[in-house]
Amino acid sequence: MQIIKVEVIPVELKLKNPVRFANQALIDQVTSIFIRADIKDGRTAWGCSVAHPDLTGETVKNAINACMMGAEKVINLHPTDIEYSLSELKPLISSSRAATCTFDLLFHDLLGLAAGMPLFKILGGYRYKIQTSATIELSNIHASVEQAKQLASTGFRVLKVKGGEDPGLDVRRIETIQRALPDHVLRLDADGGYDVKTALEVARALEKKIEFIEQPTPASDQFSLQEVTRNSPVPVLADQSVTGPSSALELAAGRKVDGMCIKIATCGGFRCAQQIDSISRAAGITTMIGCVIEPALQIAAGLHFALSSPNIDYADLDGNLGLIYDPTKPGFRLDNGWLIASDTPGLGCSAVL
Q1: Are β-strands 328-329 and 350-351 bridged in parallel, bridged antiparallel, or unpaired?
Q2: Do 315 and 131 meet the contact criterion of CB atoms below 8 Å apart?
Q3: What is the CA angle 290-33-272, rounded to 5?
Q4: By the 8 A CB rule, do 37 and 23 touch?
Q5: Closest Cα to residue 238, out of 271, 168, 270, 285?
Q6: Is the pLDDT at 25 greater than 80, yes or no?
Q7: Is beta strand 44-51 parallel, antiparallel or unpaired with respect to 350-351?
């Protein structure tokens, strides 16, 4: 297997409806950077990631520049020597987590093509499908219930409610959704919007009404996160607090959370995700695979990883559903809220670019 051509392709992805997270500006589009590698035998491998200051903490310019520098070297690297190839690229791309993720996905896709196997089987092969949540955006009670009903009508049975700005409203939104959809599982994502006192008040008000609360306190404040976890009647998962293996180790060592969310886009790809999940697994705490606003190619990466490990209990992989146009042709299926992998080698996706 030999790489004969590499191309970096930035794509603006517009959203059907603008979204906003707690105390952040409105987001109506994101930039995804695709990398296409043509192989001598006629096949094509893909990698991609997303760059957005509010989603990934990185500018588009920085991500594209790093990808361009890395692409110049890829053609001289062996497609299946992942550790060596990515170590050779590191001096060129380490300033960009998006670029690191993009090349990580590319070389894993190449590995799957070389092996003739889907990635989830190469990475562990624990299962072939997983149930995902769908997200209810920040909004008023009426709009939240209507969105919940719409998502339920398409088959989703697990709903994640975005909150973090108005704790009283967050409680009322979830209580109203629960009355409308009593058989659905609800989760609350506060996006770091509460202090300890408020987080515990919300958790107590929603005891037995939500499955867990995600990132209740600011990402940089592990002490507050630990205080909420120790006193909350519902499980607490860290999201933005998990920035890589070192932060995961700190969270796990102090048993500061009940679980950790891994996002392929923000952690830098499969290698980093494996390290975080191993830390979580060794500590006896659960893992969730999450996402940002991203194309189906990147959702596929999250899915393959979610299917690879028995420690991954939750999936939140709906970041492609709000896009007006996604150039990715997914190899997986979404069936009544379940993401189901195919036996297509590698990531199992292609792109029309």
Answers
A1: antiparallel
A2: yes
A3: 45
A4: no
A5: 285
A6: no
A7: unpaired
Return all residues near 154 (Cβ < 8 A) that are at least 6 apart.
none
Give the residue among 164, 303, 148 at the shortest CA–CA distance from 239. Answer: 164
The reported pLDDT for the residue numbered 324 is: 95
Nearest to 93 by CA among 58, 66, 62: 66
Q: How confident is the model at residue 99 (pLDDT cuts 50, 70, 90)?
A: very high
pLDDT, one tens digit per residue, over 212-230 is 999 999 999 999 999 999 9
DSSP letter, residue 118? B
Quick one: which of 334, 335, 268 has its CA closest to 305? 268
Query: Which tokens is 278 given?
Result: 């191993």
- Predicted confidence (pLDDT) at residue 71 exceeds the cutoff of 90: yes
C-alpha separations of 19 from 22, 25, 160, 286, 293 in Å = 10, 9, 14, 28, 10
Return d(Cα 226, Cα 237) in angstroms, integer: 10
What DSSP line would sit under 243-301, residue for residue? -SHHHHHHHHHTT--SEEEEEHHHHTSHHHHHHHHHHHHHHT-EEEEE--S--HHHHHH
CB atoms within 10 A of CB 195: 16
Residue type, 116: G
What is the torsional sign of CA 118, 121, 124, 129?
positive
Task: Identify whether the C-beta of residue 154 lies closer than 8 Å to the C-beta of residue 339.
Answer: no
Cα 7 to Cα 181: distance, rounded to the nearest angstrom: 47
Closest CA to 156 of 177, 178, 187, 135: 135
List domains and CATH numbers for the chain: 3-116 (3.30.390.10), 121-351 (3.20.20.120)
What band does 254 get if pLDDT is binned at 50, 70 and 90? confident
- Sign (positive/negative) of CA torsion 16, 137, 264, 184? negative
Terminal-to-terminal C-alpha distance of the chain: 23
d(CA 14, CA 310): 35
pLDDT of residue 306: 97
